[in-house]
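Researcher: Next entry in the queue.
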Amino acid sequence: MSINAKKKIVIGNWKMNLTVPESIILSERIEKEMASYKYTDVVVCPSFLSIYPVSSILKDSPIKIGAQNLFYEEKGNFTGETSPSQLRGFADYVIIGHSERRIFLGERDKDIAKKVKTAVTFGFTPIVCFGETLQERGDGLGKVVVTSQLEAVLGLLTANEVANVIVVYEPVWAISPSDRVCAPKDAVYIIEALRNLTGALYGKDMAEKMRFIYGGSVDDKNAKEFLKERLIEGFLVGGASMDHNGFLSIIRDVEKSASRSSKNIPGK
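Model: Structure for this entry, 268 residues:
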């Protein structure tokens, strides 16, 4: 499968920002104005408490539901965690390894790898985040860090499982509220390294089946610039996904880009 043949994807991560009533209102607004797109998949990831009501609202729409995390055991004495069996039936995707969990909750590569393995075993599509800190970037270690993170995850997966993983380059130094900006060419440099590693381990065809997306403070003002790069196949959107107008604008931009790619028409 070529890059041009794949659907692109836009994922909204609402993080821990919205109450259940606020999540319901936002999902209703998105659902009301959401079109059915031929070339773009759309996912929203509410907080755990909001997954059920949001999934009920969006059940007849093209929008899929994702969770923001899961635990790697099916059941047991793990206070505060959510198991894959509890999520099944309510979500199709799950974010794993987000930088905020790595930094604030101490998640290690081996924990993330186990979660990804669990996710694919239970039929979820894992949205796995990789990225370097400002210090690592300044030391010239960005490429080494992110490829090491990816290799830790891929090491537990079979070739068939790898094909379902969505890889997110999420530079920690460019995540809101930072005022630092990742240039599209810098994002592509890392994404290309992640693709090349996947190709080296599982073959070029496998790397082309997967989706490699960007997730560093994307909004409706900068999305078009990133979409000029053909290796960027979608976005993980944070704060901007909670403004329904901005989120829908990003989706429309991605759809236009994907449509052009499918026809091999150069972007303008």
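Model: The longest strand covers residues 8-13.
Researcher: Noted, moving on.
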